[in-house]
Amino acid sequence: MKRKIRNILPFAARGKVVRFSETTASTHDAVGEGNDSPDQDDLHRALGRIAANWSLIEIASGLVLMSLVGSRDETLARAVVAGQRVENIWETIEALLASYGEGAVGELGAFKAWRRSANKCRRKRNEAIHSAWSLTTESGGPLAFDVMSQRAKRGARADLFPGGVGELVTLALAIAECEDRLTLIHVDILALMDQRDGRHGDLPDSPS
After folding, report:
1. Which of 26, 56, 57, 60 is nearest to 44 (CA)?
2. 151 found inside a domain
3. Which parts of 87-157 are beta strand (E)?
4. DSSP run (H or E) holding 148
5. Rounded to the nearest 5°, which phi and psi values hold at 37?
6. Mean pLDDT throughout 40-59?
7. How many angstroms separate the CA atoms of 15 and 74, rounded?
């Protein structure tokens, strides 16, 4: 018996489900004749900024981890963290900083505070990237339909990004700011590691 495919967007007829293809929403075929929905390309660009900015956080997280284990090789960092969930990388960073005791209290506190804010961006990033999108004129812009949560299993909900493209751009900027903060924390961690290396390398002269 042929399996019936559930329509996760039963209300999509009011707009146009977004699909990534070679055609753009600026054509009449993309959004329909006379449709005043915003250009689909604006939505694609906003989602792309979110994805690109988040990839920088993942790269920066790998660099922080490698610094804590004594390497500043970006290529090696990418190889070490490849395939790992970013939350696991953050957990390892916290564990390593904690292992340094009182000498890394400041860096550990800064990273924990950063991680709390980064997790908020991570959740919103996942919602933006993994939701289904529809262009509609009823709310004045694109709507994101949740297809991941338990609530979505009972029927997709369209309240994830009510601000449309503008809200996505704001999220992309917040992720970029989050990456900037991690870069500053990384600088402090590099200084910490240099201090630790210096203590081991510059031992006092033995008394004659």
Report:
1. 26
2. no
3. 132-136, 143-145
4. none
5. -60, 150
6. 92
7. 44
Sign of the dihedral through C-alpha 148, 152, 157, 159: negative
pTM for this model (two decimals) = 0.76
What is the structure's pLDDT at 21? 54
* Structural domains in the chain (count): 1
Residues in the chain: 208
Does residue 208 belong to any structural domain of this protein? no
Give the C-alpha separation, 37 to 3, whole Å. Answer: 34
Could you tell me if 8 and 147 are in contact, meaning their C-beta atoms sit under 8 angstroms apart? yes
Q: Torsion-angle region of residue 131: left (phi > 0), alpha (psi -120 to 50) or beta?
A: beta
| Structure token pair of residue 24 | 């753009």
What's the rounded Cα separation, in Å, for the pair 131 and 116? 23
Domain that holds residue 85: 38-129+164-193
Tell me if 45 is assigned to some domain: yes
> Does some domain include residue 75?
yes
57 contacts 178 by C-beta, under 8 angstroms: yes
